[in-house]
Inverse folding.
């Protein structure tokens, strides 16, 4: 009985967390090893990602300020819909600008086959 239990435990450990049904390879967020960049492309991409991270940090600061401004609008005697629309539109516009700049710069350095691989992971480059 103990032998059967041991065999079942070993079989469970052997087949646990099998990745054969996953369609995407695993990688770290914002990691670009799957693109197989040349040394020159890697240096350019590093600069692009550094800029993206900096703008992303500024965006989160802007998002926090916008959230606070919307809270003040909501707590006021009357709700200023026009100001709410202006604040949220400005935030959404900035988000689109950051993504557009990133995608434009990445598009300029990648080969067609690398672009196809990049498209599979575009979601992780979205500004949130």
């Amino acid at each position: 009985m103990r032998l059967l239990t041991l065999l079942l435990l070993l079989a469970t450990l052997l087949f646990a967390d099998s990745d054969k049904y996953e369609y995407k390879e695993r990688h770290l967020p914002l990691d670009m090893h799957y693109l197989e960049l040349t040394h020159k492309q890697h240096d350019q991409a590093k600069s692009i990602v550094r800029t993206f991270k900096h703008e992303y940090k500024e965006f989160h600061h802007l998002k926090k300020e916008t959230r606070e401004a919307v809270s003040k609008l909501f707590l006021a005697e009357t709700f200023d819909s026009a100001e709410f629309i202006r604040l949220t539109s400005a935030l959404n516009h900035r988000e689109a600008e950051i993504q557009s700049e990133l995608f434009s710069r990445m598009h300029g350095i990648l080969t067609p086959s690398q672009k196809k691989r990049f498209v599979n992971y575009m979601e992780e480059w979205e500004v949130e």
Summary: The longest helix spans residues 39-75.
